[in-house]
Amino acid sequence: MVSNIVLGTNNLEQAEQFYDRLLTLFDAKQVMKNERSILWKSAGSDTGIAVCMPYDGNPASHGNGSMVGLKAKSVEQLENVYATALKQGGSCEGEPGERKPGVNAAYFRDPDGNKFGIFYLE
User: Fold this and answer.
1) Long-range CB contact pairs, 29-37, < 8 A, 24+
2) Domain VOC spans what residues (predicted)?
3) Are 109 and 93 in contact (CB under 8 A)?
4) Which residues have CB under 8 Å from 14's CB, separation 6+?
5) 24 CB neighbour count, 10 Å cutoff
C-alpha cells in the first residue's frame, strides 16, 4: 500500500549524509537522486524513504504529531540506529529502552526536525 515516505529538507547535502549513514543500517541504498530529492530503498523492498526540497520553494517544516516508524531486527540494531542518528546531527526525543513488556523503542529527530521512532518487538 505504501510506496514511499517523503520528508522535507532545507539542506539536501546534509540530509544525504544523515540518511546515507542511517539507512545503511537497514541495508538501504540510494536508488534515485536529482537536484531536489533522494530516494533510498532496501533490496527486495517496495517501500522507500525520500528527502525532498519543497517544490513550492518555501522552507521545509516537520509536522507536529507526525512520525516515521522504523522496525529494528534486534535491540542492538535499535540502539545502533539511535546512536548513529545522534552522531549525524539528529536530536534525542527518547532514549532507547523498554516501553512496555516486549516493546523496545527509541525516538529521534533528523537535522530538519522530522521525528522517527524505532521499534523492536520481542
Assistant:
1) 36/12, 37/6, 37/12
2) 1-121
3) yes
4) 89, 111
5) 13
Spatial separation of the C-alpha atoms in residues 32 and 84, rounded to whole Å: 23
Between the two ends of the chain, the Cα-to-Cα distance in Å is 25
Letter for the amino acid at 63?
A: G
CATH architecture of 4-54+67-121: Roll (3.10)
Q: Is 88 left (phi over 0), alpha (psi -120 to 50) or beta?
A: alpha
Domain ranges for the chain, please list them: 4-54+67-121
Q: In this predicted structure, what is the pLDDT of residue 3? A: 87
> What pTM value is reported for the model?
0.90
Burial of residue 117, with CB atoms counted within 10 A of its CB: 0-12 exposed, 13-18 middle, 19 or more buried: middle
What one-character DSSP code corresponds to residue 16?
Answer: H
Q: How do residues 8-35 score in pLDDT, each as one tens digit?
A: 999 999 999 999 999 999 999 999 999 9
Which pLDDT score is estimated for 85? 98
